[in-house]
């Protein structure tokens, strides 16, 4: 199914006596690329994991349209691709298994080949995954995420370790995926990347949404002190002291 607007209401996630998410509320459009930015520890990765279903909040909820999202196919790509010590194609096959696809063997092979072709690794299917470069490994992680045909693609700093060329290749893929109708939510500290990719921008600070709007508007003229502090690269306490 296509993802309907994602409504995040009052998410609380407590760990170690601290509220990592402290009433996070946001409404995210059903299409396009949403970027989430904010200082270290703001709760961005936890938010992505809750959206993926990997973590459960202590309070609050996420709704996809009217439902809780059981029928929304989700895939999460991490900063460091967690690949198994096997061939490139075996790694992609894991993504099909996770998507619970009831396909026959030939159809599975076709889907895997198509996903590898999509990320430019069509001729590397039999290679050991560990032989790939960092950028190729991240493209492989994307192929594994895409092979199940996700409605919602969650990306957690997917290019943090990559050089500009490899970053551009991933950005191109992400843009294409969003244009084809997959909803993308991207966590990134790379504000250039946010400016290149994002339609809307959600700024988190200490477990709350402090600003959310069209990406270019938020980047150019943030309205809140917290968003300004983060976007200008200032230390938060300096900015608050000055505010
Ligand atoms: N599964 C978990 N269990 C317990 N604590 C967690 C878990 N995941 C994250 N945390 C804690 O929650 C806090 C926020 O983490 P999170 O990774 O969401 O921040 P972030 O905004 O993504 O930061 P960064 O920019 O550094 O990646 C951290 O203190 C982290 O240790």
Automatic annotation (TrEMBL):
InterPro entries: AAA+_ATPase, ABC_transporter-like_ATP-bd, ABC_transporter-like_CS, ABC_transpr_LolD-like, P-loop_NTPase
Coiled coil ranges: none
Record key words, sorted: ATP-binding, Nucleotide-binding
UniProt keyword Nucleotide-binding, yes or no: yes
Residue ranges annotated for the ABC transporter domain, each copy included: 6-231
GO cellular component terms, semicolon-separated: plasma membrane
GO molecular function, one term: ATP binding
Family: Belongs to the ABC transporter superfamily.
Protein name: ATP-binding cassette domain-containing protein
């Amino acid at each position: 199914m296509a993802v309907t607007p994602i409504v995040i209401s009052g998410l609380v996630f407590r760990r170690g006596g601290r509220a990592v998410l402290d009433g996070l509320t946001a409404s995210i459009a059903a299409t396009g690329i949403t970027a989430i930015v904010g200082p270290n520890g703001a709760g961005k990765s936890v938010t992505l994991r809750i959206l993926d279903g990997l973590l459960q909040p202590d309070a609050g909820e996420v709704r996809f349209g009217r439902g809780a999202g059981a029928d929304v196919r989700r895939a999460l790509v991490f900063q460091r691709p967690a690949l198994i010590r096997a061939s490139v194609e075996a790694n992609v096959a894991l993504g099909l298994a996770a998507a619970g696809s009831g396909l026959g063997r030939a159809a599975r092979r076709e889907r895997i080949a198509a996903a590898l072709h999509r990320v430019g690794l069509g001729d590397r299917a039999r290679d050991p995954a560990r032989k790939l470069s960092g950028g190729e490994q991240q493209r492989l992680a994307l192929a594994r995420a895409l092979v199940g045909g996700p409605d919602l693609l969650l990306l957690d700093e997917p290019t943090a370790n990559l050089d500009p060329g490899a970053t551009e290749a991933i950005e191109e893929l992400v843009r294409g995926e969003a244009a084809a109708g997959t909803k993308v939510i991207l966590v990134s500290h790379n504000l250039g990347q946010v400016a290149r990719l994002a339609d809307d921008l959600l700024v988190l600070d200490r477990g709350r949404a402090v600003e959310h709007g069209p990406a270019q508007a938020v980047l150019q003229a943030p309205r809140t002190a917290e968003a300004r502090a983060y976007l200008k690269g200032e230390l938060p306490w300096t900015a608050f002291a000055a505010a």
